[in-house]
Amino acid sequence: MNWAIFNKGEFETTSKDWTVTSKKRLFQNVFESSKHSNCDFVIVMVGLQDYIKGDKSITPENTFENIKNIVEALERLEKKVVLCYIPNPDSWDLKKTKKLENCFAHTVNNKIKSEFENSNSVILGPLCDLSNYKYFRSDLYQRTRPYFDQKGHRFFAADLFDILVPTISKYEINLIISPNKPESE
């Protein structure tokens, strides 16, 4: 078996831009492509731009519903979904004042956790939320924008691969054992 990772992210797109109903057709452009349509696993990392853009019409509830719609569309395509939480380093003050529940990303992340934590078809990525002490560190983020810096990306990638490697390995072993009946987990 071969593993390949394709980064199909689009700069400054919102979660709505990735829904099946979006006029931008980003979802269709990826999954109607012969190069990418036969993938088994899809890592979903959307939502950061929803609150960075500062568009007040995009609420945490909108973002969560968009993410849920993306996951459901991938499930209909029989993809294994690895759903990542939204990092929220711009919430330092909210964390320090114990008002993190007022943070856009934290609100979405709680909804993600509540909806998908016990799912058989969705694998949750690392909790890169400031509620997780591992990510409550300024050295993982760019100073001028609420994005991971190079060290933060490496840190997140290592956490993500700690989840992916055993999950994909288990999937591959099940394909070898029962080639006509892959595990639905």
Task: Describe this structure as you would to a colleague.
- InterPro entries: SGNH_hydro_sf.
- This protein is mainly alpha-helical and 185 residues long.
- It has a domain at 16-136: Rossmann fold.
- It has 6 helices and 3 strands, in the order αβααβααβα.
- Helix 3 packs parallel to helix 5 (104-116).
- The protein is globular.
Please specify the SSE layout and strand pairing.
Blueprint (H helix, E strand, L loop, with lengths): L25 H6 L9 E4 L3 H5 L7 H17 L3 E4 L8 H5 L7 H13 L5 E3 L25 H28 L8
Parallel strand pairs: 1-2, 2-3
Helix pairs in contact: 3-5
InterPro entries: SGNH_hydro_sf (IPR036514)
Organism: Smittium megazygosporum
Protein name: SGNH hydrolase-type esterase domain-containing protein
Quick structural summary:
The chain is mainly alpha-helical and 185 residues long. It has helices spanning 26-31, 48-52, 60-76, 92-96, 104-116, 150-177, and strands at residues 41-44, 80-83, 122-124. The chain has a domain at 16-136: Rossmann fold.
Q: State the distance separating the first and last CA atoms.
A: 19 Å
Q: Based on the coordinates given, report the CATH architecture of one domain.
A: 3-Layer(aba) Sandwich
The strand order across the widest sheet is: 1-2-3
How large is the radius of gyration? Answer: 17 Å
Number of helices: 6
Q: Which structural category do the helix and sheet elements fall into?
A: mainly alpha
The H-and-E topology, N to C, reads as: HEHHEHHEH
Task: Give the amount of beta strand, in percent.
Answer: 5-15%
